[in-house]
Specification:
The chain has eleven helices and 23 strands. β13 and β14 form a beta hairpin. The radius of gyration is 27 Å and the shape is globular.
Length: 679
């Protein structure tokens, strides 16, 4: 029976290996400290945190997330340590909430490896605090207990660590916040939630149809096997979409659909007759139609998947929801499998340890039989977990096979036949595809990485050398070319999915080194002006875009949008910056940071093509810039994390096939439509 603790209450822990599960509703940092019998942390090597997640007997997550699992092995805790404190803190300096005031109370549970919950605690009463000691596991007379603490600190991590006696607590807190910020930059951001009253496609089971409790081999895993709703809601990193959790930072960094289109206003009857307030240039939005019905399943077989099998006002919205649902299904069913394998490994280790601890069983047939039995149990558990995983993966593969061909241009791969019938759209889509993500358990099962429009985070296309084998095979010059090719492919897609004249691309190429990559944009006329080069060109483009941000901000705040200069380009703007920081002085760097922070809210977006190592000379002044951008790579690299369980996902960019003319074809139609509309 689960003990529901209140502040100060304790409960015995009848065992050594535990998981501490945290649900906070918003991304938080989770860590743990060891302290002696006086409650003092003896050094930084007694603190487990995202930058150093492993200590003897402790393992904590590497990134900020709404849900966490911490692993504790009390038998492995050093003898000098008498207390394990579980810490929660809000990420500092990343644009999130600065205190727990107004946030949902964090929920913390202590569970066994089989998922059985022994105690839980809801941390209530927090207000101005930004960090809290949620629980502590403490040793008394050779036995361990858990106590609900709930001690908050308005001074954040530094104050909390200092209160536990850690020397140089502020330095460690700064290092933790830096690691978390790096992690958020690598996260796939979770999409915004559905508006109140909007339902999602209920999927309480995984793709294979079994209840999604992460169970494999009779033991509960580390994540639910299915999703509660088809909209993939997860209060992870808010932003423009993945992942990809949202670079999800600090390792693999932070998807639900956004607001549904507003139904058309109803005519109002008055003295002059009915008045229709629907915009005359917009196509009326029909009420949502029910998802298509799946063909009847054969007895004993799962139902056949259907494209658009999710709720939404339009087919595009249903497909968007379905893709995010597939993403979450794959994340959770894989988490369940990995957890089951971890449990099988742990169980076999315990049984082998018992054999070795008995001198009579170390040798002879009895010992051999015990070891063989332990290995057989391990094999049976892993095989059973793999069978469940394979069943789920097979159903997801089948779903992907029907969903991929049905995707509209904004969501489709560049090699999709949908581009052959491409027409310049009249409406801005809800999202677009940045690439694909996959996990090692089934590399051929690729999930589209969709991000919401308009972009709320800029993009950083990393021209450095990733850790993947593909990155190691490419020389630095080739990596820079591939990075710029990736940026051009993304820019071409953004131009293609916006109505004619509603999206403008600017390019800063100080040294003129990206001419070959920019060829599709320049030869089709998709760029309104040549790429800016040299220090003067950099300064001119940045000054113009900075002025645009200032003017639009003032107009919006003053409610005077009609006072904008008539020659101001009101279309969405994308600035591609190549070879940063070449050609940038301190003023240009400041303007670039300003555009990254303030631009997205008024339609100015940033895409950096850069190697962070090249910009180290600027020191910490550029850290906020890197944190604000979503890192993607020009070659496959396992650096993104989902917002549910934090898997390291391999990201692959969305590029046109070698030798294909699809970019020229699409951009040519965009330019032709722009001219036809006089834009």
């Amino acid at each position: 029976m689960t003990a529901e603790l209140v502040r100060g209450q304790n409960h015995p822990l009848p065992g050594a290996r535990w998981e501490i599960r945290v649900s906070a509703g918003k991304p938080v940092v989770a860590g743990a400290t060891l302290s002696d019998d006086q409650g003092t942390i003896r050094g930084t090597d007694w603190v487990a945190h995202p930058a150093s997640p492993n200590l003897p007997g402790l393992e904590v997550p590497r990134q900020a997330a709404a849900d966490h699992r911490l692993a504790v092995d009390l038998d492995a805790i050093p003898e000098a340590a008498h207390r394990v404190s579980v810490l929660l803190a809000l990420p500092a300096g990343v644009g999130g909430p600065v205190s727990f005031a107004g946030l949902a109370a964090p929920f913390v549970a202590v569970t066994g490896l089989d998922g059985t919950e022994i105690a839980n605690y809801t941390v209530t009463g927090l207000d101005a605090e930004s960090a809290v000691v949620a629980l502590e596991l403490y040793r008394r007379q050779g036995a361990w207990k858990v106590r609900a603490v709930g001690q908050g600190y308005a001074g954040g991590l530094a104050a909390m660590l200092q209160d536990q006696g850690l020397p140089r607590a502020a330095e460690l807190a700064a290092a933790i916040n830096e690691a978390v910020a790096e992690g958020i930059a690598r996260s796939v951001p979770a999409p915004p939630p559905l508006p109140s009253g909007e339902g999602g496609r209920l999927r309480t089971a995984t793709a294979g149809g079994h209840t999604g409790n992460g169970t494999a081999g009779g033991y509960t895993g580390n994540g639910t096997g299915g999703r509660d709703t088809g909209n993939g809601t997860a209060d992870g990193h808010t932003g423009n979409g993945p992942g990809v959790t949202g670079d999800a930072a600090g390792g693999p960094a932070p998807l639900t659909p956004g607001p549904s289109p507003v139904p058309p206003a109803q005519p109002v009857t008055g003295g002059g007759g009915p008045v229709n307030y629907q915009h005359p240039g917009r196509t009326p939005v029909a009420p949502p139609t029910p998802p298509p019905a799946a063909p009847p399943a054969e007895p004993g077989r799962p139902a056949q998947p259907v494209a658009g099998d999710a709720t939404g006002w339009t087919m595009d919205e249903r497909l968007y929801n379905q893709v995010w649902g597939m993403f979450e299904d794959l994340a959770r069913t894989t988490a369940a499998y990995r957890s089951a394998v971890d449990f099988a490994d742990s169980r076999m280790e315990q049984e082998l340890d018992r054999v070795l601890s008995d001198p009579r069983a170390r040798i002879g047939s009895a010992g051999d039989a015990a070891r063989a039995e332990a290995r057989a149990k391990h094999t049976a558990l892993v095989d059973q977990a793999r069978a469940v995983l394979d069943r789920d993966l097979a159903q997801l593969v089948a779903e992907a096979e029907v969903v991929e061909p049905a995707l509209p241009p904004a969501f489709a791969r560049w090699d999709s036949p949908v581009w052959q019938g491409y027409r310049v759209p009249m409406e801005i889509p809800m999202a677009l595809r940045l690439g694909d993500v996959h996990l090692p358990e089934r590399p051929e099962l690729r999930i589209p990485m969709l991000v919401r429009l308009p972009l709320e985070r800029g993009l950083w296309v990393d021209s450095g050398r990733p850790a993947s084998s593909e990155g190691n095979l490419a020389d630095p010059a080739e990596m820079r070319r591939l990075a710029m090719d990736t940026a051009v492919a993304h820019a071409a897609r953004m131009l293609a999915v916006h109505p004619a004249g509603e999206f403008t691309v600017h390019v800063i190429d100080p040294a003129g080194s990206a001419a070959s990559s920019l060829a599709p944009l320049t030869r089709t006329g998709a760029l309104r002006e040549p790429p800016a080069s040299g220090a003067e060109g950099v300064a001119a483009v940045l000054a113009r875009l900075t002025q645009r941000v200032d003017l639009v901000q003032m107009a919006v705040r003053g409610g005077a949008s009609d006072a904008l200069p008539p020659d101001l380009d009101t279309a969405e703007q994308l600035l591609i910056v190549n070879d940063f920081p070449h050609g940038f002085d301190d003023r240009a760097v400041t303007q670039l940071r300003y555009l990254a922070d303030e631009g997205p809210a008024v339609g100015v977006h940033l895409m950096m093509v850069a190697d962070r190592e090249d910009a180290r000379a600027y020191g910490p002044v550029l850290d906020p810039l890197w944190r604000a951008l979503l890192r993607i790579t020009p070659v496959p690299d396992d650096h993104l994390a989902d917002p549910w369980v934090g898997h390291a996902w391999t990201y692959e960019p969305s590029l046109a096939p070698a030798g294909s003319s699809v970019l020229d074809h699409v951009l040519g139609m965009v330019v032709e439509a722009r001219r036809a509309w006089g834009r």
